[in-house]
């Protein structure tokens, strides 16, 4: 349920209202816009006398939110959320959402010091603002390379020191959280989108989370996963569309571009697109990246490797730093047109 307050509401009146609502065991979520203040109520609202609330002098109107996601809901928080990445850990902080566009780029997995350093320098020179690299890899086969784990995270931290780029890497197990102390953006991969115990733990921290869409998840399921993290108190979430499984087999997945404008209606959270995992093919990355920008994405995540044919993971979809620079030119061109 939300209550939209009248513009002339004073701070004292607002405080009295919040105290009253909290006395009924409700969690109150405030969203102050330029013209209106919205009081969002989470919890069992059946005890509230809706007519009484509506009749208060300061209340413009009361609406019930029918969707099961509340904190992630645009009705709760009409303004776009801006998520700041790398604000507290020595990197150049980067904003995502609300008009701020960010490109995350780097290898599928961190392989060795030379590889991550070369790729980090290359993507930075081409205009990426966040460095990606997997340290814990969710592989379909247990016999495939599983990532360098803590050593991979240390190599990313070193690349951060070298370039100033904040780093994003995937977590698979909540027990690993101490290793992520200097990771600026924690990724939840498609395979873990509904690992609710992991999501609950990530709700307890205040680091930004990159929540990728599940392999066959609906937008509602995805937003409910964001809600799990937000319900715990962490509202710094960036959503990442990375393709979904359909009957089509030529491409690795099917990139759901309509998810971008649909999510923009449903939620205030920033939405980025990963055209690499969505298509599985390096030559399809550029057209899909440009289409994502045109559809309103707040950023991109792109796999880049210094030697794709030798990559330990996802070489076929990885761009060289030069190819990535070419994509960035196109992205900047579309962004100019959009403005
Ligand atoms: C990744 O980004 O490294 C990854 C494994 O992607 P996804 O979870 O989208 O498959
Ligand atoms: Mn990959």
Quick tags:
339 residues, alpha/beta, eight-stranded parallel β-barrel, 14 strands, elongated, binds phosphoenolpyruvate, binds manganese (II) ion
Head-to-tail CA distance between termini? 35 Å
Helix percentage range: 25-40%
Shape: elongated
Largest sheet: 8 strands, parallel, barrel
Output the radius of gyration.
21 Å
Order of helices and strands: EHEEHEEEEHEHEEHEHEHEHHEH
Query: What is the average of the pLDDT values?
Result: 96
Précis, in short:
The chain is α/β, with parallel strands linked by helices. Helix content is 33%, strand content 18%. The site of manganese (II) ion has 5 residues, from loops.
Walk me through this protein's architecture.
The two termini are 35 Å apart. It contains ten helices and 14 strands. The mean pLDDT is 96. It is elongated and about 70 Å long. The chain has helices at residues 11-22, 50-55, 113-126, 150-163, 196-203, 219-231, 259-266, 275-279, 282-294, 321-338; strands spanning 2-5, 27-32, 37-42, 59-63, 83-85, 94-96, 102-106, 130-132, 167-170, 185-188, 209-212, 237-241, 271-273, 299-303. By secondary structure, it is of the alpha/beta class. The strands form three sheets. The chain has an eight-stranded parallel barrel with strand order 7-8-9-10-11-12-13-14, surrounded by five helices. Strands 2-3-1-4 form a four-stranded antiparallel beta sheet. Residues 108, 277, 303, 313-314 line the site of manganese (II) ion.
């Amino acid at each position: 349920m939300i209550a939209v307050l009248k513009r002339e509401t004073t701070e004292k009146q607002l405080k009295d209202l919040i105290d009253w609502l909290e006395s009924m065991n409700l969690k109150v979520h405030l969203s102050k816009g330029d013209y209106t203040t919205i009081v969002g109520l989470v919890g069992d609202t059946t005890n509230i006398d809706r007519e009484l609330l509506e009749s208060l002098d300061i209340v413009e109107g009361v609406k019930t939110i029918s969707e099961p996601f509340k904190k992630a809901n645009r009705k709760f928080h009409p303004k776009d959320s801006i998520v700041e990445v790398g604000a507290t850990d020595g990197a150049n902080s980067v904003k995502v959402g609300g008009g701020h566009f960010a490109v995350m780029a780097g290898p599928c997995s961190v392989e060795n010091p030379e590889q991550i350093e070369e790729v980090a320098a290359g993507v930075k020179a081409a205009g990426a603002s966040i460095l990606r690299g997997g340290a814990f890899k969710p592989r379909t086969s247990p016999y495939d390379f599983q990532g360098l784990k803590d050593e991979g995270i240390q190599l990313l931290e070193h690349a951060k020191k070298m370039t100033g780029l904040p780093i994003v890497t995937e977590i698979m197990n909540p027990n690993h959280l101490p290793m992520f102390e200097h990771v600026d953006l924690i990724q939840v991969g498609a395979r873990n989108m509904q690992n609710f115990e992991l999501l609950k733990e990530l709700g307890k921290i205040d680091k930004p989370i990159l929540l990728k869409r599940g392999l066959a998840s609906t937008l509602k399921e995805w937003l409910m996963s964001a809600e799990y993290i937000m319900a715990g108190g962490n509202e710094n979430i960036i959503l990442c569309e990375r393709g979904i499984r359909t009957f089509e087999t030529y491409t690795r997945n099917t990139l759901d571009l309509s998810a971008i404008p649909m999510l923009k209606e449903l939620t205030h959270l920033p939405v980025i697109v990963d055209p690499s995992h969505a298509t599985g093919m390096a030559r399809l990355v550029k057209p899909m990246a440009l289409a994502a920008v045109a559809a309103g994405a707040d950023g991109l995540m792109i796999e880049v490797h210094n030697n794709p044919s030798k990559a330990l993971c996802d070489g076929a979809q990885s761009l060289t730093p030069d190819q990535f620079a070419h994509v960035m030119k196109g992205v900047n061109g579309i962004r100019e047109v959009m403005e």
